């Protein structure tokens, strides 16, 4: 059996969808852990935007008649929960180190999402199922998310590592 471009696209979108599920869980938890802090507003908004981006990705997948890979999504969600077990120098509470590491993880996820939109932009003009303007808007949104994550990561690193 020969693997086709459609097969590659299916796997690619399913993998990104699984990663998005993991990112959404992390973003929601990070927003909850930072309630009442200077990070709260940004993180609540980011978590909502990630959910919106997942809905767009689901819609794009449906345009190609690609279903969600439930096993991949479940595995990604388990991986996010296992990631919570990392040492953070505090066993019973949320640590400033946790915030730094989790913001880094979200930055990696959003960078991956931007790469997804960049890849779809390569053939959007030649595929009626994708809109060039739609993909450009998603690219710009991901870049804004990255900029906000960088700002908040800098704040978190300063709090965690600045000399007292």
Describe this protein's structure.
By secondary structure, the chain is mainly α. It has one domain: Ferritin, core subunit, four-helix bundle (Ferritin). It is built from five helices and no strands. The mean pLDDT is 88.
CATH superfamily caption: Ferritin, core subunit, four-helix bundle
The figure for the number of domains is: 1
Helix and strand element order: HHHHH
Shape: elongated
| Arithmetic mean pLDDT | 88
Number of helices: 5
Structural classification: mainly alpha
Supply the CATH class.
Mainly Alpha
CATH topology: Ferritin
Quickly give the CATH architecture: Up-down Bundle
Q: Report on the biggest sheet.
A: none
**Poorly predicted spans:** none
β-strand amount? under 5%
Give the end-to-end Cα distance, rounded to a whole number of Å.
Answer: 63 Å
Compute the number of strand runs: 0
Which properties best describe this structure?
mainly alpha, Ferritin, elongated
Give a concise summary.
With 164 residues, this protein is mainly α. It is 77% helix and 0% strand. Helix 1 packs antiparallel against helix 2 and helix 1 runs parallel beside helix 3.
